[in-house]
Amino acid sequence: VIDGTIGAAWQGLTLVVAWPNxxxxxxxxxxxxxxxxxxxxxxxxxxxxAIPFTLGWEPLPVVLLFGGLVGGSTFMGSIxxxxxxxxxxxxxxxxxxxxxPMARQGRARTAIGCAAFASALGSTVxxxxxxxLVPLMREAILLFxxxxxxxxxxxGLTTIAAIAGQAAGRALIAAGLGLLIASxxxxxxxxxxxFTLGAEALSDGVGVIPALLGLFSMAEMIELSLSGRLTxxxxxxxxxxxxxxxxxxxxxxxxxxxxxxxxxxxxxxGMVPGVGGTIASFLAYGHAVNxxxxxxxxxxxxxxxxxxxxxxxxxxxxxxxxxxxxxxxPGTEATAALLxxxxxxxxAPGRDLMTTGLPLVxxxxxxxxxxxxxxxxxxxxxxxxxxxxxxxxxxxxxxxVLVLAGLGAFLSELRRADIVIAGMFGVLGYFMKxxxxxxxxxxxxxxxxxxxxxxxxxxxxLHALGRLDLxxxxxxxxxxxxxxxSVAWPVLRAWRExxxxx
Amino acid sequence: MTASLWLPIGFAVTAGAALAxxxxxxxxARLVPAVAxxxxxxxxxxxxxxxxxxxxxxxxxxRTPVSAxxxxxxxxWVASLPVVATALGLVIGLPVFLFAYLKLRAGVxxxxxxxxxxxxxxxxxxxxxxxxxxxxx
Lengths: 502, 137
Description:
By secondary structure, chain A is mainly α. Chain A is 73% helix and 1% strand. Chain A has 23 helices and two strands. The radius of gyration of chain A is 22 Å and the shape is globular. The termini of chain A are far apart. Chain B starts with 5 loop residues before the first helix and ends in a 6-residue tail after the last helix. Chain B is an all-alpha fold. Chain B contains five helices and no strands. In chain B, 77% of the residues lie in helices and 0% in strands. The A-B interface holds A 169-170, 172-173, 176-177, 179-180, 183, 187, 189-190, 192-195, 197-200, 431-432, 434-437, 449, 452-453, 456-457 and B 1-4, 6-8, 11, 14-15, 18, 21, 25-26, 28-29, 31-33, 36-37, 39-40, 43-44, 46-47, 95-96, 99-100, 104-107, 109-110, 113.
C-alpha cells in the first residue's frame, strides 16, 4: 500500500509541475486571491461560479484548478482584517484582534509578513499530515460497506449540527431541508416522480450547481447590495503600509513551538466535518493567549496573536480533505463546492478514488500545496494593489457576479428553469445568512442526499435478508455511538448551561 | 442574531407539505422525505417556541407579566404549530397528491400549490399575530 501511495504521490507531482498543467493551479490561485481579498466574499463564490464553466473539461485540469481555488482563498481575508479591521472571512476575525492594532502602530507589513509565512508553513504541516494519512484512508475505506457509509453520512450531518452550538437545532433543520430538496425528482429505485409538481425542470431533481450558485454567490451579492456600502470594504481609499516583512517572518522561528502547536490544532480541527477554519483560528488564538507568560500585550498588537490563528487556519485546509476524499462528507463550504466539482466530473470520493484514482488525489494535494505558497508569496509582493481592490464599488461588482451566476446556472444543464432555481436559492441563502441559519448543513445534505438514500435502502435490504450482523461490524457500532453522542451533546450542553445559570 | 419567524414558518409549511405529499408515494420512495420532514417539524416546534418565548421578554431580559394560565395556553399553541403546519401543509400536498393520481395538468397543479402555500403562510401568521400577539417577523 505504501509503495503504491509513494508511486501515486510522485505521479501526482509530475502531473502538477508538467507544462501546461502548472498554469491551472496558478490561474486558480490568482483568481481566488482577487476574490477572497474582497470582504464578505470568499473563494466559495468563485468555486460555485467555476463549476458550470468547467463542466466540459477533463478531470485533470478541473482537479488542478480547484486545488488552486481552495488554497488561494485562505490567506487573503487576513489582509483586509489587518489593514481595515474587516475580516475577509470568518477565520480572519481572530487575526484582526492583534493584526489591526499592529497596522495602527505602523507595523502592517510585519503583521502581513507573519500571517503570510505562518499560513504557508501551516498549510505545509496540514498537507504533510494528509499525505501521511492517505495509506490509512485507503485501508479504512475498504472496510466500509453500505451500513458504515450510511452511518458516516449521518455522523457527518449530526457533527455539523453539534458544532453549531446554540444553532444545533437550526443546523439539523437545514440538513433536513437539504435532504428534502435532494429527494425532489425521480426516485432512484422505483422511478416514480417525487415532489416534481409535474414540472419537467424538476424531473431530474434540483441541480447542485444552481443551489451552490444561489446559496453562496447570489446570496452574498444580495447582502452586499443591500448593505448600503458604497465600496466593498466601506473605505474610500486603501491604507498606507509600514513595518518589515522580514521581522514578521522571523517571528515564526522565534515562536516555533507555538507555530507547530497551532498548526496541529488546525489539522486536528480540520478533520472533523463542519468545524471549519473559524473555530480552528480562535482555538489557536486562545491557546496562544493561555500559553503566554505575559498576556497583557494580546489585543494590542502582539505578533503571536497573528501567528497562531493564521497557522491553524491554513493547516486546516489539507486535513479537511480527509473526510471529503475518503467518505464524500464535506465539512466546509469550500470542500462542499470541491466535492460538487469532483462528483460532476465522475470522480466520486471513496473506494475508487482512493485506489485507481489515487494519482488524481495527489494532484489535488500538490495543487493545494503549491497554491498555498503562491498565495502567501504573491500576497506579500502585491499587497498594495490587492488592498486597492477592496475599494471596488459595489455597483460594479454585484451586477457582474449576479449575471455570471445566472449564466453559470443556465450552462450547467442548459435549462432556463435553473436560473429561477438559483435565484430562489439566492433569496433563501440571503435570509438564512441574515437570520443566523447555517447554510453548510443544507448544502452538505443536498450533496450527500443521493448516497444517503442509496445506502439506507441497501442497509434495510441487508437487514430484511438477515445479513446485517452487528456483532461483526464494530466500525458500525462505533460510528452509531459517535452519532448518538453528537446528537446528545448539544442537548446536554444546553441543559448544563441552564442548570449553571440557575 | 435576528430572531425572525418568517424562516421557521416557511420551513414548517414546506416540511408539512412534503410530509403530506409523501403519502402519495410508494413506501420505498416516501421513506427519506417523510422522515426528514417529520424530524424538521419536531425541531421547528422547539425553534418557534424559543423565538416566541424570547420575544415575550422585554429588551432588558425581563419577562412580560402574563398570567400562568395564559402562558400555558400560549406555549401549548406554539408547541402545536408544527401540527398546524402539517395540517395546512396538506392543503399544499393535496394538489401534488391529486396530480399523482388524477394526472391534473402540470401548470394548474403548480398554481394551486403556490396559492395554497401563500394561504398556509398567511393563516400561520394570523394565528401568531392574533392568538399569540407576536408580530412576524
